[in-house]
Design brief:
By secondary structure, this protein is mainly α. The protein has a domain of 50 residues. It contains 3 helices and no strands. The two termini are 16 Å apart. Belongs to the ATPase C chain family. This is ATP synthase subunit c.
């Protein structure tokens, strides 16, 4: 087996490890919203809109990592 044949597997393993960051990021975002809503329920709307923007940014980074895992071979 040549090193070029192993490159695809290594990229997928790298992406699997890279999913930990977005997973933790999404958990922190919504944990903060839950905590903030518990402390100040009337600000739920403002916190949710900010949380959705943060969620979109974190997921965009995860999708970018997914694409790069398969493009760079």
């Amino acid at each position: 087996m040549t090193p070029m044949e192993l490159a695809g597997s290594i990229n997928v393993i790298g992406y699997a490890l890279a999913t930990l960051g977005p997973g933790i990021g999404v958990a922190w975002i919504f944990a903060s919203v839950i905590n903030g809503t518990a402390r100040q329920p009337e600000a739920k709307g403002a916190m949710m809109s900010t949380a959705y923007i943060g969620f979109a940014v974190v997921e965009a980074l995860a999708i970018l990592g997914f694409v790069l895992a398969f493009v760079i071979q």
